[in-house]
């Protein structure tokens, strides 16, 4: 097959493209801009064009797979339809693959990427090599796709626009259910209904693994991960929230009859993923720099709390660079973001990363700065192009820097000089 991927630089679609390439298909694609993920794809021998040039869609293409983030006006998408080429969304295409495997799907508003990676490490430690599609790059491998040789598949299942309902899971792990993607969902009840629909996709002989505070019903067997004692979990990644994620993995592995010691050894061997409290390096002034993808108030709170377990408040000064993601999310959670960030020693707020949204003049980064200051916090506006210079101007060795957000500001961290 000849497969063309529109939006191939997305974290999910790029992994799927690698899967197709591994299966022997000819894979090409396009995206709006270059990125580290596109560089990775090119190293894998996948040709990627930048822009919407429609002539790259030719009648010998078997299938077009596209990200749900593209607009209906995308010229390549229109051209594919005109030529009668089979077109599938990324979730639809991924769903077809999950039919062929014993699929462990990890979903939740927060923590699904890390939990997906943890599940891979646990299975691998038990001698099971699953196929993996994950929403980040695994530490040590530098890839978001693992070609397995077992009948197991581990996938990150995204709830945005009910994408995960396209999947055919054998087992489902639910990290949590919280308010997010309110540019699509009406409210928390609408979000819960989506997760409930996904839980019903679990077959009679499958497992739904959740925590006590997650209220879902299923056709399969339900496991309460809180029965796993957190005190007995040893991890190499920071944060109490990661122990909560690990509970889900251990609970399922126990029911699958896998050796508990090997499962826990695998979890301890897990060193994290790209942009999940990732240590970037130490500056010439001895300042440690971390990067994280968090873009929801609870994610910021968990990440900051995890850092504070090792770098205590009062002993270390925490500088946070925050790039808000989406106008709608910033507006909805303005006060919640402010409450979390007001407790940080110094906050630099960048302009809102619009992503798929049109500009909304009723919300701005300056409003967030004002909210933080009103709560007694220290905050100022910052453009991303100044971030590397500002970081290098911090000279106190007892300082920690955290860049956090789902936008593109993280690219500026590569301009910082590390020792």
Give an account of the 3D structure.
The structure is a single chain. The chain has 419 residues and is an alpha/beta fold. It is 32% helix and 19% strand. It is built from 13 helices and 18 strands. The chain has helices spanning 11-22, 36-43, 75-82, 90-98, 112-125, 188-199, 240-255, 260-269, 297-310, 327-332, 334-341, 365-374, 387-392, and strands at residues 2-6, 26-31, 47-50, 63-66, 86-89, 102-107, 131-133, 145-146, 152-156, 171-174, 207-210, 221-224, 278-282, 288-292, 317-322, 346-349, 379-381, 399-404. The strands form 3 sheets. The chain has a 7-stranded mixed beta sheet. Helix 5 crosses helix 8 (260-269) and helix 7 (240-255) packs antiparallel against helix 8. The protein is globular, with a radius of gyration of 21 Å. The relative contact order is 0.09.
Identify the strand order in the major beta sheet.
8-7-9-6-10-11-12
Mean pLDDT: 95
Query: Which overall shape is indicated by the principal axes computed on the Cα atoms?
Result: globular
The main sheet comes to: 7 strands, mixed
Quick summary of this structure?
By secondary structure, the chain is of the alpha/beta class.
């Amino acid at each position: 097959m000849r497969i063309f991927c529109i939006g191939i630089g997305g974290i999910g679609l790029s992994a799927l493209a690698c899967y197709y390439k591994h299966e022997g298909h000819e894979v090409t694609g396009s995206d709006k801009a270059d990125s580290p993920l596109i560089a990775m794809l090119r190293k894998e021998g996948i040709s990627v064009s930048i822009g919407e040039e429609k002539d790259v869609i030719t009648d010998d293409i078997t299938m077009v797979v596209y990200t749900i983030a593209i607009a209906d006006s995308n010229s390549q998408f229109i051209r594919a339809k005109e030529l009668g080429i089979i077109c599938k969304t990324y979730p639809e295409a991924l769903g077809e693959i999950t039919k062929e495997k014993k699929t462990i799907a990890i979903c939740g508003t927060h923590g699904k990427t890390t939990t997906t990676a943890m599940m891979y490490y646990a299975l691998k430690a038990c001698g099971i090599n699953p196929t993996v599609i994950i929403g980040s790059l695994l530490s040590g491998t530098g890839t978001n796709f693992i070609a397995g040789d077992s009948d197991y598949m581990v996938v990150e299942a995204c709830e945005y626009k009910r994408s995960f309902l396209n999947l055919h899971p054998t087992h489902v792990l639910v990290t949590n259910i919280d308010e997010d993607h309110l540019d699509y969902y009406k409210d928390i009840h609408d979000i819960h209904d989506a997760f409930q629909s996904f839980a019903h996709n679990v077959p009679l002989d499958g497992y739904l693994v959740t925590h006590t505070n997650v209220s879902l019903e299923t056709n399969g067997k339900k496991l309460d991960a809180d029965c796993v004692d957190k005190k007995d979990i040893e991890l190499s990644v920071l944060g109490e929230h990661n122990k909560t994620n690990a509970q889900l993995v251990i609970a399922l592995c126990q029911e699958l009859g896998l050796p508990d010691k090997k499962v826990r050894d695998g979890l301890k061997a897990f060193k994290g993923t790209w942009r999940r409290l990732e240590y970037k390096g130490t500056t010439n002034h001895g300042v440690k720099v971390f990067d994280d993808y968090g873009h929801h108030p609870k994610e910021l709170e968990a990440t900051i709390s995890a850092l504070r377990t090792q770098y205590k408040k009062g002993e270390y000064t925490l500088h946070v660079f925050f790039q808000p993601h989406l106008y709608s999310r910033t507006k909805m959670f303005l006060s919640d973001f402010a409450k979390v960030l007001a407790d940080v020693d110094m906050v630099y707020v960048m302009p809102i990363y619009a992503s798929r949204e049109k500009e909304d003049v009723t919300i701005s980064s300056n409003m967030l700065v004002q909210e933080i200051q009103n709560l007694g916090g220290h905050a100022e506006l910052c453009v991303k192009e100044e971030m590397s210079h500002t970081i290098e101007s911090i000279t106190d060795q007892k300082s920690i820097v955290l860049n956090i957000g789902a936008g593109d500001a993280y690219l500026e961290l590569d301009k910082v000089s590390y020792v």
